[in-house]
Amino acid sequence: MDIKILENIKLSDYTTFKIGGLAKYFVVVKSEEELFATINWANKKDEKIFVLGGGSNLLFSDDGYDGLVIKNEIKGLEIVSENESEVIVRVYSGEIWSKLVYFTIENGLYGLENTFYIPGTVGASPIQNIGAYGTEIKDVFYNLKAVDIKTGEGRFFNLEDCNFSYRDSVFKKELKGKYFILWVEFKLSRSGKLNLNYPDVQRVLEERGIKEPSLRELTEIIREIRDSKLPNPAVLANAGSFFKNPIINPEHFKVLKEKFPDIKSFVDEQGFKIPAGWLIEQCGFKGKTFGPVGIYEKQALIIVNHGGAKQKDVLGLVENIKQEVKNRFDIDLEEEVNVL
User: Fold this and answer.
1) Domain ranges, residue 272
2) In angstroms, rounded to a whole number, what is the distance separating the alpha carbons of residues 307 and 231?
3) pLDDT at 268 (0 to 100)
4) Region 257-268: what's the mean pLDDT?
5) CA distances from 171 to 93, 204, 216, 233 (A)
6) Is 212 a member of any domain?
7) CATH number, domain at 45?
8) Is 174 found in the same domain as 92?
């Protein structure tokens, strides 16, 4: 099969951060056949492979990528199994995440509604165990098929195989960079109880006097909340939330609560989850500019590229933030964005 391999392509054009050097080789794949042909091509030339989805959670090196970048545009969405109470939906990895969630809303399927408006593609969802407003995709994950980028062999992963945790999975650890996720299946419900526990969601519902929102009403509220807090990357380049919310033990939380009575927190099964944005804001970074980069004025979790920023500019600010948070709260922040 003929595949169109390009050379020296600007990676900054393919990420929402608008940062990154040249990819040695670059290809867009739109089918399984093109994927297998691409893998064979790379292996014959002994080139390493990086799989690129929506480019919304990435910070590429200014030196680019010395290998083959595969832009995943394999799309498709179908119901593969259903009964009176549950539906299993298979979605190919190049589909836009919000398109999937919109499909579930239109068909009255519960489980993904709180993740509406998360940027990126479906293929990234199990890697990152994406989540928002009190839910994670592990809660409705059923199965996935991935392709070994060295051998081209397919492999199925169930929930246990993926080893999901907060913004993490086996694909970010021991299997990092080893598989191309082809499709993901989700088990969704025809009826269910909406998760309305997130404070911002509760606030809007109370303001509007809504006690029992519909699926559509909830997703519209979530879209409005995200729009009010997060910058549109088409207008102001960014990679979304740069840091994970740290989880601390009860003893550490007690010490901080005494010192900072207004500290924000969520009870987590592993301890107390502290909003990283609150920590960064307390250290005085919110809305500040540092050369070509800065912290978004409405949400301290977002590092923005004001134009012409390099990876080193972002990483310099990241280290400064991490050090200040460590000094003040004795908390180590961890990046959520994939830094290459």
Assistant:
1) 237-339
2) 14
3) 75
4) 91
5) 14, 36, 32, 26
6) no
7) 3.30.43.10
8) yes
